[in-house]
Amino acid sequence: MPRLTSWGLLLWAAPLIAQPGVSPFSGFLRREARIWTTPARLDGGRIPWLILAGAGAAALVRVDSQVSKGLPDTPAQLRWGTRFSRSGGVIGAFAIGGGLYAAGAGRHDEGLKGTGLAAMEAVGHSLVLTYGLKALAARERPRTGSGRGSFLSGYDQVWKAENSFPSGHSMQSWALAAVVSRRHRHHRIVPWLAYAFASMVSVSRVAAQRHFLSDVAVGAGCGYLIGRFVERRLAAPRGGPPARKAWLKPDVQPALGMSSGVLTLRWSLP
User: Do β-strands 249-256 and 261-268 pair in parallel, antiparallel, or remain unpaired?
Assistant: First the structure.
């Protein structure tokens, strides 16, 4: 059966990523439901950012085929893209999360164990969301059909999960990176390494001609948000919801001189 390995890994990891004291799936399914219902719960301040993100994705879709056809398509490019992208696949992502958990268990480090559990859960949520969106979008891959990445044209590939939009590898690697970088942000090099890894996985999927640019961009954005959501939920103290944080925090710094003025706007992710 297609993709049996992916779902098998998710079922294997489910008892680990469940919250202590609850059934193996209840915590995971509760958070999965919140992910799917997020658009219905957005407040007014976030809707403009959602519109902006949608416009950006639409702009990328319009140049997807040009970018794909503009690649040199050398054997070295395709070989590197195919090989490196495996590290961001379901097996590779679960292996990284499981490895972090095992390392924490061996060192009796509860923090590292928690990172491994959160990472595996984030990958699991990314897997479910990826397959759901692939079935809805039914987009052709760069080297199938017309080569233009037509949407609603790849329904014959839904069961095989061979549709192009969004990139599962990109979503899983960015979800993993968001969890690891946030939980270990006190080590300055860790966030850089985590996001560099996720970025390389995304680039490798385009280089391998398995995805368009918009596929990996949307996958990266969704993965980042999933990773941050899971990290906040699992880091929340028992008995209450996590503290609400601003999605984007502005930092305004005006500066006045004798004959000039400067207004600096900086935006930082929570």
Answer: antiparallel
